[in-house]
Amino acid sequence: MPRLPPVPRPAAAASTSTPDIVAELGRIISTRRWNKGAAYKRLAPSVTAAHVADLFRAPPAPLHPATALAYFEWVGRRPGFRHTTASHAALLQLLARRRAPANYDKLVVSMISCSDTAEDMREVVDAIQAIRRTGGARLALSPKCYNFALRSLSRFDMTEYMGKVYSQLVQDGLLPDTVTYNTMIMAYCKEGSLAVAQRYFQLLRESGMELDTFTCNALVLGYCRTGDLRKACWLLLMMPLLGCRRNEYSYTIVIQGLCEARCVWESLVLLSMMQQDACSPNLRTYTLLIKGLCKEGRIDDARMLLDDLPRRGVVPSVRTYNTMIDGYCKSGRTKDALGIKSLMEGNGCDPDDWTYNSLIHGLCDGKTDEAEELLNSAIARGFTPTVVTFTNIIDGYCKAERIDDALRVKNIMMSSKCKLDLQAYGVLINVLVKKDRIKEAKETLNEIFANGLAPNVVIYTSIIDGYCKLGKVGAALDVFKLMEREGCRPNVWTYSSLIYGLIQDQKLHKAMALITTMQEDGITPGVITYTTLIQGQCNRHDFDNAFRLFEMMEQNGLTPDEQAYNVLTDALCKSRRAEEAYSFLVRKGVVLTEVTYTSLIDGFSKAGNTDFAATLIEKMINEGCKPDSYTYSVLLHALCKQKKLHQALPILDQMTLRGIKCNIVSYTILIDEMIREGKHDHAKRLFSEMTSSGQKPSATTYTVFINSYCKIGQIEEAEHLIGEMERGGVSPDVVTYNIFIDGCGHMGYMDRAFSTLKRMIDASCEPNYWTYCLLLKHFLKTSLGNAHYVDASGLWNWVELDTVWQLLDRMVKYGVNPTVETYGSIIAGFCKATRLEEACVLLDRMCGKGISPNEEIYTMLIKCCCDTKHFKKALSFVSNMIDCGFQPHLESYQYLITGLCDEGDYDKAKSLFCELLGMDYNHNEVVWKILNDGLLKAGHLNICSQLLSAMENRQCHVNSQTYAMVTNSMHEASGSVVSELRGEAA
Question: Which windows of the sequence hold PPR repeats (predicted)?
Fold first, then answer.
């Protein structure tokens, strides 16, 4: 029979004895009547099994074998002394080496008897092999001793070592008996190694020994463990024909296998067969059947079987009751589960820890208060809750969004000296993040460190994701850096959350750079990551890069999902490129969904092609894709924009016929158009219809009416409506405030306009660029004495700085201190008008006030410098920006490098390009934006080629698709130049 591969032997355990004691003990035992002398009596209390082992191994002249054996037996009788496997092994090696006569069987059995661990049993196997190796055949052990060793090894599932002992038995010329084979077969069957078990079974048959029930039961178990229930049932049925009587264990093994495979009906058939076979099902049999019925959802059948047990003469155990409780809890019937607890207590069976934990876990799914009450009563009865118990209650309160109760239980848990584990902390942090309580989530993270635990990637990413969704990307990046410092590797979810946050924070270049970081970390970006980046490119209307990312995703073996197509389609449609979007979808063979159709309908409607939009709705319905209220709202919006209210109103009837309820967006669109057409009574009636249908007006709905009041100068009514909004729990948005400020300005109510600005900021509504434009427009108009009409879009061409200073002073007078957003909005206006000097004066003013410019201000100034060809100034802004910890956008480098090349300063352009390569940018995006979309489109072919070579020399990571794109563009540009030169020569 082939021997199994050996397992490497563990290193010998270090001695724990004292050399002086061992040396003295050796000298004493070498004397006559050593056990009677005062020297040994003084030393005896200090002697341990480790000393004895070292004594037997002590070089260079070990004890005489007879002396060693006598001392081993004598010291073993001392009260409180217990030999170890090490002391046994040392003696056996000493005896075998000298081939001394001894009862080796007795010593090996004794050694096995004091083996408490798998490590001890490995030492036993080593000792058996040492006896054979040094003592030869004359010291061979008996089959009984070998069988005892095999059974003991089986206890620890050490099948590989069992194979070694079996081989030793055969090499000693001994014949395995039925016990030997049965032990081997059972061990390998338990392990699921049925092929090995069957080899031993074959050896048993070939030896002429008769099979017994134990052998067949072992093979039945093996078949069940490997999932071959057909063979298990076949062998069970064949057992009588093989001369083996079936017993309760035979049936129970198969019933367990069938129940685990959810074949409860078959297991119930076996139960009937078992009773006909004069085998009485035991408690374990019934418990397995109850568990199987519960797993299949047959809870009531399981309960009937439980109630029938006393009639069958079987007393349910705590495990049986627990099985029923678990079934009820998993099916959500916690009331019945509590009934089982009462039943078991009434029958004198006390609930154990498992009972309480199971009930508490079940109650925490919607009845956490009851779970906590049960916990308190269980503690009063001696139950000791574990971390799992408390975590279940914390999780229950978290699911119910009762965070304060969850934190209270956490404090109780800590006061009971039960430390939270990572799962408990993870549950808490997850719900704190979801409820925007990020500060507490971060404090909980610090608590994890304080308790000596290492947060895992899920915990870190939960906090990062929470910060990103709140727009606190800087804080998210700090947690990301902490995560890396602590040696916790981020995963795809971590990077995707950061990329989402950076894009929301308008830092697309940093989001793109994370793709490179992901790949360097061995993490492959997924569809969600690419889709998020595509969304970022679309937000900046950079559709060329969006399509490049889409192709890159496909080249990397990823299949774009519905969301990826919807993101690109929606962005194209909103940019009046609906036909391009539709062609793209048709070319890709995409099955259009409700969301895709809605985007296309919106796109074609806004492009003025409402007929095709209506056709798309009909096509959508014919293809079984039901339009919703939002789908119709985009069509209504388009018709109203084209002053086709008479065509829009019948659509409401279509929606009603198709069972689609008109939403707040549709109502607001129609109300807005009615007001525009002067049909105020119709608008009010539709507003009443909307509110009576249960639709709550939105800020946009109110703003429509406020706008109409402001246009006709009814400022009091408009302001009253703002108050009504606030009382109704609807917060005015920045558009609402801007419209009201504009209305106040038109009426010359500048005090009210500035008071509204203060009210806006107090309501945590951040003023935007248009807020300051409107204020400045009306402030300027007032200062000119209504002599000129002032257009908000053109005022930046001729407004003076003195007027700006007056505006800022007026803001301060009304308790509104100018912020970085205030200065940023005014600088943006001057930059749009390419008035760089005024923009720089404003920058100096804000810095003088102790307000640091943000990333957006620097970006606008760099663009303005490039537009006005002040490249030296632009370079200084880039340098200042980096010094402040900001990373310039790639567009800024594109403007600068292309502008420098336009001016002929190629060396500076090349130097600047090499600097940016050392920064954290995605090199594919560098090629897209600077080389392809910048230099090549501007006609700078030679410098583009040089910069591409510089990237190659620096081994920048650029994928094959990007490289092919730029080289093809360079070849096309080169061919175009040659053609032009030939044309000129001709």
Answer: 177-211, 212-246, 247-281, 282-316, 317-351, 352-385, 386-420, 421-455, 456-490, 491-525, 526-560, 593-627, 628-662, 663-697, 698-732, 733-767, 819-853, 854-888
